Amino acid sequence: MTAEQRVQSVDEGKPAGVWSEFFEAVKPLVSAATRIVHEERLGTKTTMRVGGAARIYAEPASVADLQVLLREARAGGGEVLMLGRGSNVIVPDEGVDGLVVSLAHQAWSSFEPREDGRVAVGAGLRLKNLCGLAAKAGLVGFEFLEGIPGNVGGALRMNAGAMGAWMFDVVEEVQLMTRAGEVRTLTKAAMHVGYRHCEELHQAIALGALLRPATRSDAETVKRQMDAYSRKRHESQPREPSAGCIFRNPPGNSAGRLIDESGLKGARVGDAEVSPTHANFIVNRGSATAADVIALVRRVRARVREVKGVDLEPEVLLFGKEWKDVL
Ligand SMILES: Cc1cc2nc3c(=O)[nH]c(=O)nc-3n(C[C@H](O)[C@H](O)[C@H](O)COP(=O)(O)OP(=O)(O)OC[C@H]3O[C@@H](n4cnc5c(N)ncnc54)[C@H](O)[C@@H]3O)c2cc1C
């Protein structure tokens, strides 16, 4: 890549030819099991079902292939973004000028219980499968994850939580890869986590984690608790495509209640709607665009500020962008 192209890649996005060069350079370096393609549409890989394509999209089949992708992208100055199950992101309509990496390959979906009850899981393991396998093994403590539509990597990055617990309550160690391709293991004590936040994973990529259950029981009991949580979710959350709670709860307050009391349930921009079931969900009624969702986020924030005097901050991430640039 010439110096001129390098500058352009940082300032204005890479020209298509440079991504082609990246693709041609990387393809022979990764194993045949790694999927790598141009212009992959991302909307259907997210639960909100909006947004454009990734210039390059890859599903690495191994640690070595992920290292190759990261190192080549770094050498070319290109941006790399991780995509989990896409349940906490809005992909912009124009797509993403970068390499989007997903740990969707089976190699990242491991679930390995140890003698002492601890379980090593891959970052690509769906939370739904984690819950199912934990229940089968009689491991207590993961029930709160039932119904969160992400994978382990996304749940670690977001410190996903529900029913009074969050992901890092059950984490002992996280195995991660730095952007330079170095593999490290960090104990929970060495990590900085909080509400929907894990500082280390803003940059590094989670490869897997060692989880510790609270205790052991029989499969039936664990399953019964999961079913109870699942019922609670079904009663309180909309069924339409969404990205979960759109705003963070302000300290000591509920974003959903503030939005509801501002009279916004059912408010619409195009096919994006503030759910009448749960005011902190924006749902896609069919053919919403990312622009519709962003415009509705803007409208909700403005109204809640006017009526309640509270500035709501999005919990959902704008993929490859910063909310402050569009709000
Ligand atoms: C119907 C519905 C209900 C929901 N309920 C809840 C809930 O109860 N509690 C809750 O906390 N959330 C909830 N969510 C939001 C969402 O499911 C969680 O935030 C989930 O943890 C996101 O995981 P994901 O795999 O989909 O990540 P994505 O949405 O794909 O990504 C989220 C972030 O994680 C990063 N990321 C993904 N994989 C990795 C990795 N391996 N390493 C480093 N970074 C990575 C991405 O780059 C992005 O920044 C809900 C969403 C929906 C649609």
Total helix count? 8
Reported for the largest beta sheet, the result is: 5 strands, antiparallel
Bound small molecules, by name, code or SMILES, are: flavin-adenine dinucleotide
Low-confidence regions: 1-11
CATH topology of the largest domain, by name, is: Uridine Diphospho-n-acetylenolpyruvylglucosamine Reductase, domain 3
| SSE succession | HHEEHEEEEEHEHEEEEEEEEHEHEEEHE
Mean pLDDT: 94
For the record, the CATH class of the largest domain is Alpha Beta
End-to-end gap: 35 Å
CATH level-two architecture of the largest domain: 2-Layer Sandwich
Anisotropy-based shape: globular
Radius of gyration: 20 Å
Oligomer: single chain
Structural class: alpha+beta
Strands, total number? 21
Helix content: 25-40%
Count of individual domains: 3
Q: DSSP strand (E) fraction?
A: 15-25%
Read across the widest sheet, the strand sequence of neighbours is 6-7-15-11-12
